[in-house]
């Protein structure tokens, strides 16, 4: 009866139970699963190994009657002399006058506190009469609220264990315990609360982490299965011959990776279940071509397609290139926040009556009063963060199209199989042939003039350059080179035949559009910009990317910026101007110069930053575990994923009795009971 309220436990009264409720501990089960957030490991070391100023634990015999002195109001100082390894050590305790009565000459004491190696003195924070049984003593420390202390909590948990411990049922089949050498569920909890030694701690943590990850993966995969079974009948019967012809329109051959991703997408579109797929591909791997073919598939199936992108610049760019690509095969339109009212009305009508085949735009596309005639496919480019939200919006509009998310922000495998565990994933893991790796250099600011001369030389060769500055306005707090200043500096530096352009988020959108157009047509050779060009912008003739204050950007963002060059067949360069203040900053710059591989880079970024930061703080969908850590427990995560797959694919939860307890536990999860989006 572990689901009884904690009040049932001896030693827990109303007030205690209230405090526990504030810690979200309601039932006995909650209590048993409330784990220490850390452990104090008290290890008795020989005196010679104690380090000055460290927190240490020593054991010895009280030599004389302790001397107690009072000072100030109610303050006291108790000094003991303790014999340790035949050396007389002074132990000082503040405001513990009561200890004088407890500690008599001849008593053995264990003392923990700060060690002063020069005076052979310990300032005691914790003491215990008697010897510590083992040379190592591990004390659990819980995060607590109200009047609850770690000590009190430990006591009631121990009581709960005594009275209810036998009810902790094993959920893993015994074959798992055997092959992974895992302790039972009950032993695991006991050892996590009351570890006897480091080994117990290690094994119990290992088991708990595996269990957390397995449950999580099972949940994700069950959800995914549910998505698939929830057939909405949105089969898209596209015309294969037309697609073949369409692919001939590209001035290049699709790479094998593009082909196989496309096959997976098309298979989903043809099937009756709703596609929920993530297409991952490093910057420049050619996701747009895959998107274009998929959109055309919808059109040949008599439906409409939508391509949603995060910025107007990108929407404009996709619009231009897709319009050209489709020619009169499909009617392609652009809808953004700055589409003029009259035009907007025409487009909305066309969407509703089905005259518009393909619509490209920012996220206003699905949020506004936009109604579709028959929306078959939605592609969301470069916007993995908002996936969940947008799926919900679509559903709220009564639309159940196939959905494809494309991302060039390389999501490390660890995150892809957790945060996106309920999606299918396709990866373009191959670059178009003939690409030269971008050469990345890290320099200091005093190199600036030389960089400009370098740019001048390449521009005279017919190439183009970006210079990225982080902010558009000067701020006295941050001495960031401002884009406008930079623009003026360059105007002065370069001869008049080299045209310099300025791009930032606050420009009116028609001006943005014209600047990008001028740059794309090489009427502007050097573009000073903020990070608005970060995602997706495709000007293959640009070969130099200079990033100011590079240490202020995240690695993934730097990689995105770098991805703006190296898109043609000429050698490209990425120059990072940075003077990082700390080691992590220096490390990040070095990583950039060492690898061009977005996935490798993302893994290393994740290691430096931790998963919480990877998507920004408020990223939803990154699960919180009690003990598991997606970066450090990567191997366990992978094992758990495979095991979960095996369990779900073979229906073991339902047809193998040894999985019964596991199934029962999962059935308690609310998200598995109600239909998710
Ligand atoms: P991203 O994956 O970053 O969105 P894009 O789709 O913008 O990449 O493609 C980058 C560039 O590569 C474009 O100029 C595109 O025309 C070109 N490209 C795409 N696929 C191929 C291919 N198979 N062979 C050669 N060039 C390609
Ligand atoms: Mg792209």
UniProtKB/TrEMBL annotation:
**UniProt cross-references to Gene3D superfamilies, sorted A to Z:** Nucleic acid-binding proteins, P-loop containing nucleotide triphosphate hydrolases
Family, per entry = Belongs to the helicase family. RecG subfamily.
Main function: Plays a critical role in recombination and DNA repair. Helps process Holliday junction intermediates to mature products by catalyzing branch migration. Has replication fork regression activity, unwinds stalled or blocked replication forks to make a HJ that can be resolved. Has a DNA unwinding activity characteristic of a DNA helicase with 3'-5' polarity.
PANTHER family in the record, alphabetically?
ATP-DEPENDENT DNA HELICASE HOMOLOG RECG, CHLOROPLASTIC
So what EC number does this one have?
A: 5.6.2.4
What is the name of this protein? ATP-dependent DNA helicase RecG
Q: What InterPro entries does UniProt report for this protein, alphabetically?
A: ATP-dep_DNA_helicase_RecG, DEAD/DEAH_box_helicase_dom, Helicase_ATP-bd, Helicase_C-like, NA-bd_OB-fold, P-loop_NTPase, RecG/Mfd, RecG_dom3_C
Enumerate the NCBIfam families for this protein.
Answer: PRK10917.1-3, PRK10917.2-2, recG
Q: Where is the Helicase C-terminal domain?
A: 447-607
Q: Which PROSITE patterns match?
A: HELICASE_ATP_BIND_1, HELICASE_CTER
Q: What class of enzyme is it?
A: isomerase
Gene Ontology MF term list:
DNA helicase activity; hydrolase activity
What keywords are assigned to this protein?
Answer: ATP-binding, DNA damage, DNA recombination, DNA repair, DNA-binding, Helicase, Hydrolase, Isomerase, Nucleotide-binding
Which reaction is this enzyme known to catalyze?
Couples ATP hydrolysis with the unwinding of duplex DNA by translocating in the 3'-5' direction; ATP + H2O = ADP + phosphate + H(+)
Q: What positions does the domain Helicase ATP-binding occupy?
A: 268-428
């Amino acid at each position: 009866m572990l689901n009884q309220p904690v009040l049932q436990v001896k030693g827990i009264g109303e007030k205690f139970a209230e405090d526990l409720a504030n810690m979200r501990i309601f039932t006995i089960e909650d209590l048993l699963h409330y784990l220490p957030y850390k452990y104090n490991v008290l290890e008795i070391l020989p005196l010679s190994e104690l380090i000055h100023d460290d927190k240490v634990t020593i054991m010895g015999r009280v030599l004389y009657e302790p001397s107690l002195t009072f000072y100030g109001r109610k303050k006291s100082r108790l000094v003991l002399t303790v014999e340790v390894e035949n050396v007389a050590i002074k132990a000082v305790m503040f405001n513990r006058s009561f200890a004088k009565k407890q500690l008599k000459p001849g008593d053995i004491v264990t003392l923990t506190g700060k060690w002063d190696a020069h005076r052979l003195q310990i300032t005691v924070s914790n003491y215990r009469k008697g010897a510590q049984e083992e040379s190592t003593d591990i004390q659990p420390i819980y995060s607590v609220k109200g009047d609850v202390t770690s000590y009190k909590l430990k006591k009631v948990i121990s009581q709960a264990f005594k009275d209810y411990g036998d009810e902790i049922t094993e959920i893993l089949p015994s074959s798992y315990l055997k092959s992974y050498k895992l302790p039972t569920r009950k032993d695991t909890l006991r050892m996590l609360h009351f570890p006897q030694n480091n080994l117990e701690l290690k094994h119990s943590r290992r088991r708990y982490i595996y269990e957390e990850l397995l449950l999580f993966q099972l949940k994700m995969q069950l959800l995914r299965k549910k998505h698939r079974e929830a057939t909405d009948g949105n089969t898209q019967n596209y015309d294969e011959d037309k697609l073949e012809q369409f692919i001939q329109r590209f001035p290049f051959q699709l790479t094998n990776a593009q082909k196989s991703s496309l096959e997976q997408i098309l298979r989903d579109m043809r099937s009756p279940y709703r596609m929920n797929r993530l297409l991952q591909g490093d910057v420049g791997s050619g996701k747009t071509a895959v998107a274009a073919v998929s959109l055309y598939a919808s059109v040949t199936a008599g439906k409409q397609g939508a391509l949603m992108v995060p910025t107007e610049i990108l929407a404009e760019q996709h619009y231009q290139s897709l319009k050209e690509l489709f020619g009169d095969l499909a009617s392609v339109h652009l809808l953004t926040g700055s589409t003029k009212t009259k035009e907007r009305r025409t487009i909305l009508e066309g969407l509703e009556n089905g005259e518009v085949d393909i619509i490209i735009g920012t996220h206003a596309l699905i949020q506004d009063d936009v109604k579709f005639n028959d929306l078959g496919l939605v592609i969301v480019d470069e916007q993995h963060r908002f996936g969940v939200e947008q799926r919900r919006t679509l559903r709220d509009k009564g639309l159940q199209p196939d959905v494809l998310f494309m991302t060039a922000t390389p999501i490390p495998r660890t995150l892809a199989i957790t945060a996106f565990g309920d999606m299918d994933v396709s990866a373009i893991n191959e670059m178009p042939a003939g690409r030269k790796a971008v050469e990345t250099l890290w320099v200091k600011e005093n190199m600036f003039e030389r960089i400009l001369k370098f740019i001048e030389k390449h521009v005279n060769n017919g190439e183009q350059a970006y210079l990225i500055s982080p902010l558009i306005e000067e701020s006295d707090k941050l001495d960031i080179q401002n884009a406008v200043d930079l623009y003026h500096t360059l105007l002065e530096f370069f001869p008049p035949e080299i045209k310099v352009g300025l791009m930032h988020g606050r420009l009116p959108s028609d001006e943005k559009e014209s600047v990008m157009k001028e740059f794309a047509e090489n009427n502007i050779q050097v573009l000073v910009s903020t990070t608005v060009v970060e995602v997706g912008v495709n000007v293959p003739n640009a070969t130099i990317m200079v990033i100011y204050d590079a240490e202020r950007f995240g690695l993934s963002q730097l990689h995105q910026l770098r991805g703006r060059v190296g898109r043609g067949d000429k050698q490209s360069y990425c120059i990072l101007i940075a003077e990082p203040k700390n080691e992590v900053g220096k490390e990040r710059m070095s990583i950039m110069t060492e690898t061009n591989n977005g996935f490798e880079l993302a893994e290393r970024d994740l290691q430096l930053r931790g998963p919480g930061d990877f998507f920004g703080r408020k990223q939803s969908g990154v699960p919180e575990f009690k003990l598991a850590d997606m970066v450090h427990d990567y191997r366990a995560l992978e094992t758990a994923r495979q095991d979960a797959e095996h369990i779900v694919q073979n229906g073991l939860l339902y047809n193998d009795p040894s999985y019964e307890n596991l199934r029962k536990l999962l059935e308690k999860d609310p998200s598995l009971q109600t239909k998710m989006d």
